[in-house]
Amino acid sequence: MADKARLFKIDDQPPLIQLIVASLIVIIAGTLLFYFFIFAGSLFFRTEMREMLLLPSTGIGAKENMIIRYVQFVKQLSLFIIPSLIIIYLVKKDNGAFLGAIKLPDFFTILLVIILSLLIIPITSYTGILNSKMDLPDWLSEVESWMKAKEDTAADLTKLLITSKGLAMLFVNIIILAVVPAIGEELLFRGVLQQLLSRIFRSRHLGIWIASIIFSGIHLQFFGFIPRLILGLSFGYLFYWSRNLWVPVIAHFVNNVVLIILAYYVSWEEMREKAINLKVHVINIPFIPIIFAIAIFYYFRSEYRKKLNGESDRAK
Questions:
Q1: How big is the CA angle at 307 (ends 305 and 311), to the nearest 5 degrees?
Q2: Residue 59: pLDDT over 80
Q3: What per-residue confidence (pLDDT) applies to 314?
Q4: Which long-range contacts (CB under 8 A, 24 or more apart) does 129-135 make?
Q5: Under DSSP, is residue 191 helix (H, G, I), strand (E, B) or coil?
Q6: Which of 106, 131, 166, 252 could lock onto 226 through a cystine, CB 3.0 to 4.6 A?
Q7: What pLDDT does residue 150 have?
Q8: What is the pLDDT of residues 196-238, one digit of tens each?
Q9: Distance CA 290, CA 116 (A)
Q10: Could you tell me which of 26, 15, 7 has the C-alpha nearest to residue 189?
Q11: Furthest CA-CA distance within the chain
Q12: What does the mean pLDDT of the chain come to?
């Protein structure tokens, strides 16, 4: 029986093999699960599968609202959460090595993470404005047009998703657009990818940077690449220093939920229009948030080193 169980484990394989298997699980199992859930949804909503994957070209009603949110939930479940859990089970007997501490961090840590997440928002907003003004040379005009088309599609989807009327829809948005992505994306990018890349390159820092670049690039929003890279690096180092996946999950959640709540009180179009028209100047650089954010990162790094020293002393 034990031999049969070993057939489904790859924890004794080199990290590169583990990464290849993990990628195949995400691509194959994730795609199959996604289309299974879309098929099930088409039966439930009594609509064609193809229609469920298209953005409405006209005004949307309650049914279309729910379909859009169902598809987003299904994406997270099938492409991030379920494959990540399968990979973590297959890759390591001691899953704690991938997930870090299973229990929630203490109140002070959670408070610091929330404050840090709020400080990062003006930093990513500023870099996002800089990134959005990116202008490629003429010989890359076709690439730029494709990138802008992807950006417009993402903006249209975000507008449809983030618009919420009434507290009930706000609650649904918080679950689907903040809670689920925070868990799903952190499971895959920090819990799995960052760990495997760190082992392959034998460098925690290189693993964090590569995972963060992939995290930002996979969204296919190139005019928002830099702020997402900053977020990915922030989440990656928080996980590395805290050794607790709940820490980046909380940070990710706070980043998402602030935008959702803002959009509830201020229209998404108004927020986007202000960001597009805002002129970037040196006086607008968020120096104070940067200074305090660095101080909090330094605290997490110091606590990590204290834990390492304590473990080293106990081992002697």
A1: 115
A2: no
A3: 61
A4: 129/275, 129/278, 129/280, 130/226, 130/280, 131/223, 131/224, 131/225, 131/226, 131/227, 132/223, 132/224, 132/275, 132/276, 133/280, 134/222, 134/223
A5: helix
A6: 131
A7: 72
A8: 999 999 999 999 999 999 999 887 777 788 999 999 999 999 9
A9: 10
A10: 26
A11: 69
A12: 84
Distances (CA, A) of 255 to 25, 56, 66, 278, 305: 28, 27, 23, 21, 27
pTM here is 0.89
Strand partners, 100: 244
Q: Using alpha carbons, select from 215, 174, 192 the residue that is nearest to residue 72.
A: 174
Taking only the tens place, the pLDDT of each residue in 137-149 is 767 667 667 677 7
Tens digits of residue pLDDT in 78-92: 999 999 999 988 876
**Distance of alpha carbon 185 from alpha carbon 177, whole angstroms:** 11
Tokens of residue 204, six digits = 């925690």
The distance in angstroms from the start CA to the end CA of the chain is 39
Q: Which residue is associated with the tokens 């202008």?
A: 135
CB 194 within 8 A of CB 291: no
| Token pair belonging to 250 | 């909380």
